[in-house]
Design brief:
2 copies of one chain form a homodimer. With 483 residues, the first copy, chain A, is α/β, with parallel strands linked by helices. The first copy, chain A, folds into 2 domains: 287 residues, 3-Layer(aba) Sandwich (Rossmann fold); 170 residues, 3-Layer(aba) Sandwich (Rossmann fold). The first copy, chain A, is 37% helix and 14% strand. In chain A, the strands form 3 sheets. In chain A, strands 3-2-1-4-5-6 form a 6-stranded parallel beta sheet, with helices on both faces. Chain A has a 6-stranded mixed beta sheet with strand order 7-9-8-10-11-12, sandwiched between helices. In chain A, helix 4 crosses helix 9. Chain A is elongated. Chains A and B meet through helix 4, helix 7, helix 9, helix 10 and helix 15 of A and helix 4, helix 7, helix 9, helix 10 and helix 15 of B.
Chain lengths: 483, 483
Amino acid sequence: MINKHRNNRYNDISFINQIKSMAVIGVSRSRNFFFLRNHQENFKGNLYAIHPNIKKIPNFDDGTKGKIFSSVKDVPEDVDFVFIAVPRSKVIDIIDDCVEKGVKLASIFTAEFSDSGTEEGETLEKKLMAHANNKIRILGPNGMGLYYPKLGIAWRPNFPHKPGNIGFIAQSGGICNLSIYTLAEMEISFSKVFSFGNGTDLDFVDLLYFLSNDPETDIILGYIEGISKGRGVALQQILKENDKPIIIIKGGKSKQGSIAAKTHTGTLTGETKIWETLFKQYGVIEVDTIEKLLNTARLIECYGMFQAQNFAILSISGGYGVILVDLLEKQGINVPSFSRDIQKKINEKFFTSGTSSSNPLDVSSQIYDSDSIYDIINIALSDKNIDGLIIDLPTWYFNMEYHLTKDESFEPTIIKAFGLGHKHHKPLIPIIQRVNCPEDRIRITRKLYEQKIPVFGDPSEFIPLLPKISYAYHKKNKKKKRN
Amino acid sequence: MINKHRNNRYNDISFINQIKSMAVIGVSRSRNFFFLRNHQENFKGNLYAIHPNIKKIPNFDDGTKGKIFSSVKDVPEDVDFVFIAVPRSKVIDIIDDCVEKGVKLASIFTAEFSDSGTEEGETLEKKLMAHANNKIRILGPNGMGLYYPKLGIAWRPNFPHKPGNIGFIAQSGGICNLSIYTLAEMEISFSKVFSFGNGTDLDFVDLLYFLSNDPETDIILGYIEGISKGRGVALQQILKENDKPIIIIKGGKSKQGSIAAKTHTGTLTGETKIWETLFKQYGVIEVDTIEKLLNTARLIECYGMFQAQNFAILSISGGYGVILVDLLEKQGINVPSFSRDIQKKINEKFFTSGTSSSNPLDVSSQIYDSDSIYDIINIALSDKNIDGLIIDLPTWYFNMEYHLTKDESFEPTIIKAFGLGHKHHKPLIPIIQRVNCPEDRIRITRKLYEQKIPVFGDPSEFIPLLPKISYAYHKKNKKKKRN
């Protein structure tokens, strides 16, 4: 990565919320016009294809509107944004054209600049910056650029069209793809995703500044391997002023991981301790896998930030309940007794012998009496001393072939009961274990996702995240009180 | 739990491998003959229903073979095993009948004995033991008893019929159900599962002794909350002599968890440190969730015990590769360079620019050239310095709608490549992330399970298990060398 010496300044890219036209420069017949097609799928403004020789693209330009041009300079209207996928040797000329045309933002997919680790690549990247000359902002090179569903900017097929409120910044395009498709499956959408590759111009700090001030973004996710020397002060300043939840993976923390990161994006990953201190100070939630990053986003998207000091458990197996208590206590979360009046009310609804009506609740076969389960959950969540509720229910309970009696009201009642977290403004987190009946699991999880209820298959997926969210929640509240 | 003062003795139940006939005592019309039906599904020997008044059961007894009797004593042939689900007040009389009949093993489902926490329950359990008088072995009370697929003994519907080589011991029936259905989905089967409830007669130690010597069992799983005073020496003796992999969850390790365990099965959970030392000394693999218990069993079932000191990674995203390196190093596992000759051979197969052909491999879009990926995996696994390989490949790669070109050979070639771990006798572990296209994921995972290839969706599911398996592997090898 090229050292910028920009220190405490941020590049302003707030204009991207008003992009009206874009061009894909370097459409490729051998790739079946891949990047053009992906943007064509849903781009809301005028879309142009730029290629020196190609005069016809099936199902794109029908000769009536003249959407193919040999140079971006020939486009008769303004072009706000370009996606560049041309051979490396042509990138500089293309950038010159874009500057001349007055393009505001270029996303450069082409690789083998500083990422190649060669002097030639480094030199070319410096030359690129000199030609851009602060007149055009650049994402990349060696990145996927911008995904912005509201405007239909999307570099891959089947990226969701629905805009959401989560922003994401990563160098790696692969990690962005994985995250976009994963959240789509959870019925959660992004506001904007940036894959900034080598980060020659726009880097993690610029993009974090943007998302932190972006009215379309409520939660910020990031995967970062490192930042340039001299950008630390700027980063700290943003974190200080920011009041949105930020969740970050810091890649390359281990010795071998930092070497792998150097190969990956040419980034120096820096001192692990400094990062950890910084994150802790500003209530940034740090996790170590993409799955945990997205699961944290999912929990916050569903329930906002929350306190997790005292949880209740409702289990259909006493043993599983004991395991959950152990896991929670390991994370510093209590499973306390219910308040006396709450316990009394729960006892009135409890009719199974040989199980436990105290916290952790062990409902056993009473689960089949779904109306009473609804009531018990409702009462438990109304306890002032309880911050949230974890429920475990294996998949086969949603398949009537596994039941004693076929009760058609079981599924809708249980799903309604799982929505009670929203009524009480407390996180209710179901574990629907991934056992047999995977098709039933798909049906149930989709129904729950639609109602903004998170679902997990394994307690390890979310229990370690609860104290992190709780810590960030208290940090944020403290800050609010100070201001 | 009642103190047995049996110390260093084990109850012998090797006879269960020869069960030829069984009776369900206390068939229930209101439960639609649930337990009888479940055994009827697949029991290989003669099956009898016992009830004082019921003379007819639809689709069970057609009056020709006389399979319903008012007492077990009336059955004209030997009865080896009985499943008892009668009101608590009748259990003692039934046990008297069984002793008189010469029944060898009784599984008592009925609850509210010592598990009730009442003096009355405790007294009744002692009385039960006195009446059994060592002439009949008892599983329970308050347990689901025995699942033995080879003979068709099964307490729930749709328990798999195929026998496997994994034994499982738990007090809790709910945990057994979850485990049986989960492994079934992974195409892995149990030899025997014991849910021993209060463990009045047969306890964890007896059952571990049995499985450790059972020729039908190769891997032993257990969920244990505690054992009776005085049984520690016996447990230690079994662990010392055992040469099978044992994987255990010790429930109730936390302060609140031990209280929950007391409510659950009336068990005193004992000192955490003592358990941990014991497990470490004898190479018992300890995990903290059911999911990790089953995932460890799955890895060992697929690949046997293995060393995990040096792993290779093949990722389609450089960033994800960096994350995997960090996760592995956190667990003490190296991601070393390939040997020089291996690296040379890999380079010959690598043709994508901007990625990494060294370990961690970042194949990026070369993944679509599945033949070259097959070769790269084959070469990487042939490296003497590499113990195993982790691969990540999100679900959408198996859905042609997400591809540039529709290559029908992609899926079969990749699945064949994922089988290369077996060729090299090294664990090859694919992460197929749970993103969009869940239906495609079901198809792919089923194909992989059939070929004994484990699949995970999240690296946290298995990476923490690798050093545990490796430690147990070395413990076992050391012991072999000593003997």
